[in-house]
Amino acid sequence: MLTVVGLGPVDPEIVQPVLGPQIRFIDAPSHADLAEASGAIVRAAYVVGVDQLDAMPHLKVIARTGVGTELVDVAAAALRNIPVLITPGSNTNAVAEGVFAQTLHLVKRLGPLTQIVAQGRWSERTNYPVHDVEDATIGIVGYGRIGRRVAEIASAFGMRVLAFDPYADIPAERRVADLAELAQRSNVITLHVPLTEETRHMVNADFLDAMPPGAVLINCGRGPLLELEAAHAALISGHLGGLGLDVFDEEPPAFHPIFSHENVVLTPHVMGLSINATRETFRQAANGVKDVLEGRPAPHQVLP
């Protein structure tokens, strides 16, 4: 019987029925289990490098839950003819809803207004102007699955939608020429691009200065897309109206003074981990592993 192991918390009640009776799933593998493993389902925070690959000499496939592979040595796996799979689309809606959870929190000033009520400062309630997203413009950086879903939700809220992505087919009425134009024309900006050398710190002081005063920035993509010190300075000056972060340069992050700003909302990289999204991610990962182990083409394989 073939063995598939879970690296990080993976729900066997979802995975085992997908794998079927001929493949055994082990969610807390021992060293001996790893040595026998033909497949691995890997959670986002789990590192798979050369040492981990050495511990699994019979491994034939790795399925990563999610789409990021920064913590998986894809090149080392390729040298061993081990395909690395991802699960695109499994958490698209969850992340897009997370963008709007953070956006509404900031636009409606829920953080400081909660404190006003809790601290008995009712007379100060008009000191924090509350805005609407209707008729505002949202700028989407990256028009893939998540970016397109954000656009759909934004349209339902009555927002104008702009998008920048040199690799995507964007409707003409939404397409902008470059990031500078997107920054200048957007009241809310949300980031949905992969982390590359080109996109690292794409949101820097110049980008933030180009945004309209009081605009809101949301990053549920990758932490290093944003230059945190520049965002902190923009918040302190009052130019940046709000900042939502679900991702960070290092996770978990060390404390930063920006975390205490009243116009910041923070979540610990969980906007894509809703109950429904997590279940779908496990199902897709298990299906991918099963396909490879049973000789079918590897779905959604990442190339080194």
From TrEMBL:
**One term of GO molecular function:** NAD binding
Q: Does the keyword Signal apply?
A: no
Q: What is the lineage of its organism?
A: Bacteria, Bacillati, Actinomycetota, Actinomycetes, Micrococcales
| Species this chain originates from | Alpinimonas psychrophila
Any one Gene Ontology biological process term?
L-serine biosynthetic process
Q: Which Gene3D superfamilies does the record cross-reference, listed alphabetically? A: NAD(P)-binding Rossmann-like Domain
Spans through the membrane: none
Q: What is this protein called?
A: Phosphoglycerate dehydrogenase-like enzyme
Where in the numbering of this chain does the D-isomer specific 2-hydroxyacid dehydrogenase NAD-binding domain appear? 101-270
Entry keywords, A to Z: NAD, Oxidoreductase
What PANTHER family does the database record attribute to this sequence? 2-HYDROXYACID DEHYDROGENASE-RELATED (PTHR10996)
Family membership, please give it.
Belongs to the D-isomer specific 2-hydroxyacid dehydrogenase family.
Q: Name one Pfam family in it.
A: 2-Hacid_dh_C
- InterPro entries linked: D-isomer_2-hydroxyacid_DH (IPR050223), D-isomer_2_OHA_DH_cat_dom (IPR006139), D-isomer_DH_CS (IPR029753), D-isomer_DH_CS1 (IPR029752), D-isomer_DH_NAD-bd (IPR006140), NAD(P)-bd_dom_sf (IPR036291)
What range(s) does the D-isomer specific 2-hydroxyacid dehydrogenase catalytic domain occupy?
Answer: 21-302
* Highest taxon of the lineage: Bacteria
